[in-house]
From TrEMBL:
Gene Ontology MF: a single term: RNA binding
GO cellular component terms attached to this protein's record: cytosol
Extent of motif 'HIGH' region: 58-67
Coiled coil segments of this chain: none
Self-association and partners: Homodimer.
Function: Catalyzes the attachment of tyrosine to tRNA(Tyr) in a two-step reaction: tyrosine is first activated by ATP to form Tyr-AMP and then transferred to the acceptor end of tRNA(Tyr).
Protein family: Belongs to the class-I aminoacyl-tRNA synthetase family. TyrS type 2 subfamily.
Domain RNA-binding S4 intervals: 350-411
Name of protein: Tyrosine--tRNA ligase
Alphabetical UniProt keywords: Aminoacyl-tRNA synthetase, ATP-binding, Cytoplasm, Ligase, Nucleotide-binding, Protein biosynthesis, RNA-binding
Single biological process term from Gene Ontology: tyrosyl-tRNA aminoacylation
Entry keyword Mitochondrion: no
Positions of ATP binding: 245
Length: 411
């Protein structure tokens, strides 16, 4: 709450300390920490929940585990009793945002935005209690601004300050074009904080500048400035690059349970602890104890299985996570999963590379041949080493790598 309130009871230091610990878990930055503590103290004393905002620009229909890092932090703060506000940027998405890129993100149509937003919320429910959240759309106030209001808003921030944003600064230095409308994006996002009377805004590290603009504008409009909290970008399966679909190092929240479980188990042991901090709901004390046991000689795979089961259960169910674990055990022993794709092909005798392509077990015959050369292809449990192998009419269990199976009937 941004208005000064007369407290009836002094805040409980233990509760405030606990809330600060929850807030700081896994964060990149909390700015300013002392102001956030004062907000927590006021909330504890008055019983008035704080208003916590996170903007979602639905530029793509699906989300992956990397996106859920911020959602998980929102859930932690929601469970403390505060009001979380998932804000759909249906207005800002029509502008387009560089977000650290060297070119603008293309604007979307209203139909694309609405379709993506629906999918977002279906997936967001797996992490956040959406029914207890205050879901808003920034077109509610941004459409009403009009040309006059937008110009007045632009008058509350200087070009010099705007050029401090890294991507604008670099593009200006190199002579790359910067459209005037790009300056409006951080201003409109910042005005969202004014409209919502936000106490805290969450975002990724790449959004820090825009979050600070919101803090500045609240002061311009006579409000108590929000604090800002940035979360780190989650490294993907490779442990190097941030999780991204374009880098194919991601786990989608709608992926099948067996695949999700196996992908989590594939991450490096060192990366596992960072994933525990950013993705797990386990208390940090429990994670620290688990790490100490691993450092003392316990098999790190035991800990990784716990993480894989927790993540899989969150997006599917406990039963699905248990089944995924058993499926992984079966596969590691060379067993065939209970349910595999059934494929019917013609053209016997058919070359193995062509069969893999037609059965969607390899994207091309050249990739199929590469997999064969690497010893990653099995037919009826036997490793295929001959790229010239041709299969006659019959039914075969074909396996590629550890996770791809198909029962192929060839005629």
């Amino acid at each position: 709450m941004n208005q000064a309130l007369v407290t009836k009871n002094p805040p409980d230091p233990a509760r405030v300390d606990a809330a600060m610990a929850v807030t700081l878990r896994g964060v990149e930055e909390l700015i300013p920490q002392d102001e956030w503590r004062k907000k927590l103290e006021r909330s504890d004393a008055t019983g008035v929940p704080l208003r916590i905002k996170f903007g979602l620009d639905p530029t793509a229909p699906d989300i992956h585990l990397g996106h859920t890092v911020v959602f998980s932090k929102m859930r932690q703060l929601q469970d403390l009793g505060h009001t979380v506000i998932p804000l759909i940027g249906d207005f800002t998405t029509t502008i387009g945002d560089p977000s650290g890129r060297n070119s603008t993100r293309p604007p979307l149509t209203r139909e694309q935005i609405e379709a993506n937003a629906k999918t977002y919320f279906d997936q967001l429910r797996t992490v956040l209690d959406v029914d207890r959240a205050e879901v808003r759309y920034n077109s509610e106030w941004s459409d009403a601004l009009g040309a006059r209001g937008m110009i007045q808003l632009a008058g509350k921030y200087t070009v010099a300050r705007m050029m401090e944003r890294n991507d604008f600064h670099e593009r200006f230095k190199t002579g790359s074009s910067i459209s005037v409308h790009e300056f409006l994006y951080p201003l409109v996002q910042g005005y969202d904080s004014v409209a919502l009377k936000s106490d805290l805004e969450l975002g990724g590290t790449d959004q820090k500048f825009n979050l600070l603009v919101g803090r500045h504008l609240q002061a311009e409009y006579g409000q108590e400035p929000q604090c800002i909290l940035t979360m780190p970008l989650l490294e993907g399966l490779d442990g190097v690059e941030k999780m991204s679909k374009s880098k194919n190092n991601y786990i989608g929240v709608t992926e099948e349970a067996n695949t999700m479980f196996a992908k989590v188990l594939s991450i490096a042991d060192t990366l596992m602890w960072r994933w525990f901090t950013l993705l797990s709901a386990r208390p940090e004390s429990e994670i620290a104890k688990l790490k100490a046991e691993v450092d003392g000689g316990r098999n790190p795979k035991d800990a990784k299985v716990l993480l894989a089961k927790e993540i899989t259960a969150r997006f599917h169910s406990v039963a699905a996570a248990d089944a995924a674990e058993q499926d992984f055990i079966n596969r590691s022993k060379g067993g065939v999963p209970d349910e595999i794709a059934q494929v019917t092909l013609s053209g016997a005798p058919l070359g193995i590379a062509q069969l893999l392509k037609q059965a969607n077990l390899a994207p091309s015959t050249s990739e199929a041949n590469r997999l064969i050369e690497g010893g990653g292809v099995r037919v009826d449990s036997g490793v295929v080493s001959d790229k010239g192998l041709k299969l006659g009419a019959g039914t075969y269990v074909v396996q590629v790598g550890k996770r791809k199976f198909a029962r192929v009937t060839l005629s």
